[in-house]
Every structure is written in structure tokens, then in C-alpha cells.
Design a protein that fits this description.
- This protein has 335 residues and is α/β, with parallel strands linked by helices.
- The protein folds into two domains: 6-214 and 313-334, Alpha-Beta Barrel (TIM Barrel); 226-304, no CATH class.
- It has 13 helices and eleven strands.
- The strands form two sheets. It has an eight-stranded parallel beta barrel, surrounded by seven helices. Strands 7-11-10 form a three-stranded antiparallel sheet, with no helix packed on it.
- Bound molecules: flavin mononucleotide (FMN).
- Flavin mononucleotide (FMN) binds at residues 27-30, 32, 51, 53, 78, 104, 147, 150-153, 180-183, 201-205, 304-306, 308.
Amino acid sequence: MMTQSTLQHLMQRGTDFLGCETAIMCGAMSWVSERNLVSAISNAGGFGVIACGAMTPDLLDTEIAETMKRTDKPFGVNLITMHPDLMELIAICGKHGVTHVVLAGGLPPKGSLEAIKETGAKVICFAPALSLAKKFLRSGVDAIVIEGMEAGGHIGPVSTSVLAQEILPEIAEQLPVFVAGGIGTGEMIAAYLEMGASGVQLGTRFVCAHESIAHPDFKKAFIRGNARDAITSVQVDPRLPVIPVRALKNKGTEEFTRKQIEVAKLLDSGEIEMGEAQLQIEHFWAGALRKAVINGDIEYGSVMAGQSVGMVKAEESVAEIIKSLVEQAETALAR
Ligand SMILES: Cc1cc2nc3c(=O)[nH]c(=O)nc-3n(C[C@H](O)[C@H](O)[C@H](O)COP(=O)(O)O)c2cc1C
């Protein structure tokens, strides 16, 4: 009989829940997490998640079908709660028998959790605070992801280590919790598992996988980047709200600061109204992630990356990345 390693034992709840071999999720990354990367992650024993982002229901329909052609393993679909066609997107997931739906971007609108459950899928939500984790527990969410501000992309204000200390002791016994944000090595995975996590979610570490369709220049920026280069978007004027996003600093991030100062001046002189000013700020980054990931414009596009970018050293296959994370975690646990 094969004996189970400590790592497999600690991940058991996570692997049972996800239906995969290794409780390592590759978090949805808009433009990056499409059919190729998602199927590669699931085929390698991890758990891939399609980033629906702003896709139309038709596009999501195709993406799920194409992913299913490439893997017969389970994978998830990440839906943004603000999407105007959320209910239609849920129906598309149901049509394909998607097993796990991840809801991102704030509180799920009324009826959405129920609609997902009716399709037979499990629902995973992001809990940025203990109070929300408790609320999700009460409302029948099947698992939560806690994501700290070290992560790439849109972030909350609290670090992963603090969220883990606050949320795991209270929630992990009742609900599988996956920890995300700033995880670059297996040592860190082992530590969160020992604290009670059922698994982890990584994004940044998988961007440079061979199977990722990100532009070669986007990958080069990751391989060159250090932790300190992955900065959060800066808000210059209290009247003009800026959504916190972590990305590699470049000409675009400098330009964004200049843009805010310029808009604030126009507001002061009465040349534009508040609504128009806020729209100009909001629209500054529209299309910027696609520009960087797909077109390779790493100077003016948005190169969303987490602080763990410093631990991305080379382009590797998904299988190699997962294998080294697992080996590091096993070594750490044996110590
Ligand atoms: C380029 C990029 C795009 C992302 N896009 C999304 C997204 O569309 N939806 C989402 O829920 N999370 C998104 N994330 C967050 C990841 O799913 C994941 O939680 C995060 O990357 C984990 O932290 P890490 O980057 O430190 O590994 C994105 C992250 C990156 C780096």
C-alpha cells in the first residue's frame, strides 16, 4: 500500500474539494488564464481557472468548450460579480457542467449563489476580511480564497500573513480555505497548510509557464522584475478614487500619476465636472492589461504582477513549476 506523504495529507481536504491531485490553484488572470494555461494546469494535477473577465457569454461558451477539448480534469471559471450578464454566464457554466465557479470582485448579487448551486457547481468566493468569511459561511458558499495585498492585479489593503492569522483559525475547520498572494515557493505553501489552509492559489508564478500565451516581452518583464518593482497604483487626489492594482512600474504608471495631477487641475479651474474627472481616471487603464499581455506593450500597458515576481526566474513548463513547488513543500514539512 502506498503511504500518503505529509503534504498529501495536509492537502487532502483541498484535493477532495477540487477533485485534483495537488491543491494548488492557478488563480484566474484576465487574458492569461485561457484554454491553454488552464488545461495545462489541470492536466499537471493542479487546478486551473478560466478568467472570464469582461468576456461575453458567447466567448465564455467557446472558451469552456475549448478547454474541455484539452483536458478531462476539473477546472474552474472565475466570474466577476459586476459583469452585466452574470446570470447568463452562470447558465453557460451550467450548460457545460463546470464543477467550480469562483466569484470575484465584491459581494455576489442576490440570487447568484443560488443560481450557481442549482447548476450543481461548487461556489468559491474571495473573503477579504473575517466578517465576510463568516457571512459566506452562513450563506452556503462552499470554499473561500483569502488573498493578500502582495498579490498581482486588483488587491485589498491587508497582507496575506495577517489575513491567514485572522481567518484560518476561525474558518478553516468549517470551510476549505485557499490562501493566495505572495506565494512563490513550496516552503510558503507548507506553512499555510500547517496553519489550516486546504490549499493555495498562485497567479504570478504561472505567468511565465511555457503553456501561457502571454507575450514573450510580458514574460521577460516578469523574469527581470524584483519584488519591489511590483507596486500598487497610487492615488494622488482624495477626490479622484483609484482602484488599487499591483503591477510592475513602467512608463504607464508614471503617466497615470501625471494624468491624475492634470485632471485635478482641470477640476480646480472648473474646466471639467467631477463626474467627467472621475471617468477620465477610471478609463485611463481601459484595455491596458490586454495591451501588455497580448501585444507585449510592457511600457504603457498594465503589467499586473504580484510581489512574488522576484521568484520567477525562468520560463518553465507548468508541470515543472508544480513539481518544484511540491518538492519544496515536502522538504519543508520533513524538516
Ligand atoms: C496578470 C494578472 C491578472 C489577474 N486577473 C485576475 C482576474 O481577472 N480575476 C481575479 O479574480 N484575479 C485576478 N488576478 C489574481 C490571481 O487570480 C491570483 O489570485 C493572484 O495572482 C495570487 O497572487 P500572486 O500573484 O502573488 O500569486 C490576476 C493576477 C495577475 C498577476
